[in-house]
Amino acid sequence: MGSALSIGLSSVREYIGRLVEELYNGVEVVAGSFDEVREVERLRGVMESHTGGKVRVLDVPLISWRLKGLTLDPKPEVVGVAPYIESSSVKAPWFRVEGDATKPASWRRFPEGRVAVVREPANPDDIKATALHASEAGASALIVESPSAPRKIVTNGYWGYSYSVGAPTPIPVLVVEEGYSSKLDVNSTISIEVEATTVESTGYTLTLDLPGSSDDIVMVGAHHDRWYGGFLDDIMGVAQAIVTARRLQEGGFSVRLVIFTAEEHGAPGYASWYWAWGSRFYAGQLRRSNLANGIRLLVNFDMAAVEPLKISGSPQYSFLAEGLEDRCCECPECDSFSLATIGVPTICVHSLWSREVRAIYHTPRDTPGTADLNTAAKAVDVVVRSVTRGPSWGYLEQLLLRTLGEGPLDARRALHTLYGLARRVGWDSLYRSLARIALKPVHYGSYRLDEAELEAVWFPEVEVYKRLRKDMDSGRAPHQVWIAGEERILYVVKGPGGRAVSRNELAQQFRASMDKLWDQIVEVQRELLR
């Protein structure tokens, strides 16, 4: 493979700068809306003019949320509405909830029927959990005071994250400026009128192939749907993807540029794993057509122009990156995760969750002044170097050794089997089959009680067991550990009547989960040795 590094960082920076000027128009693009149709035609022209390729458009069925009207009295300076709320009318006194509104304890004395006013959580996405706590406490509506208002955060009526289960948000959720309640009389009434709907619609993912000397394909992606103007999230990513695709093609790689729809929301049926639906739909098509094995790698950019940059993905590629923070092993909030779960190796560069990103995330302040072109060029350069150098399978071996080799006997037995299988069929083939069964999104703790981000974990049957043992020894075991995206609990560490599960009971749970995993490993072995 020829060198893909002939373009210097200064040239990459200038090229990204020209592209984002061409791409940015300050218009919100909601997946499945009329604005998306216009955006797709505009984006198609930009992609073709900068690559010389021909764009293909993939229709993606989805649900699209639309706000038709809003009245809030007393009127704030600014107001944002949480997508997935439905039309509603509320008139009630208000009540200020003190403390951390993501915790059940903050809602114990809430007077039922009032409009709840809360401070924005440290993680804006936790507005969903706040809304569910408010609903369970009997609030008629939720008003979130934010230093970054207005802000759009998708909420949902279902605790947890499922690919298939969900519901509309049970109460109206509005985001207003910080200090809104300080201007209200303690006995005043708040009136809210919302007209909104969610409709079945169609979004559009764009693909463009650039031929090279390799038989397999490096995919380079980003998403084009956005709340508000979405410069960093993710017009910048689209520009980085175009530049990266061109650099890799110059280095001899066959490249597919993929610009996804419905990253922000859109999963049918109000699914509570509402994000990354466009990429999940695309991954499903690859899997059903048996084309995933022809993809060498997916590179994804999402908010990748603010320090500190982070890299997630397959260890044989992402661990090669120099100068970036590593978030092992995938980014479950990003489109890359959809491809990872069908066995496609990935690299995802992002900046979740820096202070700068949280301040502008899903707000009108996500404008050209928020991103640093030097950082954006650095992200492209790091990715191209990793793709050109990789894969380095020693990093995957280290991950497996750290996860399985430090586990109980059943885990070490699995590791020995996998090492033997890798010697027979090669690490590349093993990785693709293994990722489909071993890589899962996990929420370590109760959705209602614990603050925890989703994690992408290899062999959670083993990794979570080790964590639980450590926590139980320290007397701080969580209530639950969930595999997200599915309707089943990985571990429950509270037994009947709320008693703590014993170490022996936990060991029994572990053995049962390892029996299921072992059956899957045996099936992988059969498939690879046919």
Q: What Rg do the Cα atoms give?
A: 24 Å
Query: Could you give the distance between the termini?
Result: 31 Å
Tally of separate helices = 14
User: What would the principal axes of the Cα set say about the shape?
Assistant: globular
Poorly predicted segments: 1-6
Largest sheet: 13 strands, mixed
What oligomeric state do the depicted chains represent? single chain
- The pLDDT mean sits at 93
- Strand percent estimate: 15-25%
- Which range best describes the helical content: under 10%, 10-25%, 25-40%, 40-55%, 55-70% or over 70%? 25-40%
Write up this protein.
The protein contains 14 helices and 17 strands. It is of the alpha/beta class and 530 residues long. The strands form two sheets. Strands 1, 2, 3, 4, 5, 6, 7, 8, 9, 10, 11, 12 and 13 form a 13-stranded mixed sheet that branches. Strands 15-14-16-17 form a four-stranded antiparallel sheet. Strand 16 and strand 17 form a beta hairpin. The chain starts with 8 loop residues before the first helix and ends with a helix. The N terminus is likely disordered.
Task: Sum this structure up briefly.
This protein has 530 residues and is α/β, with parallel strands linked by helices.
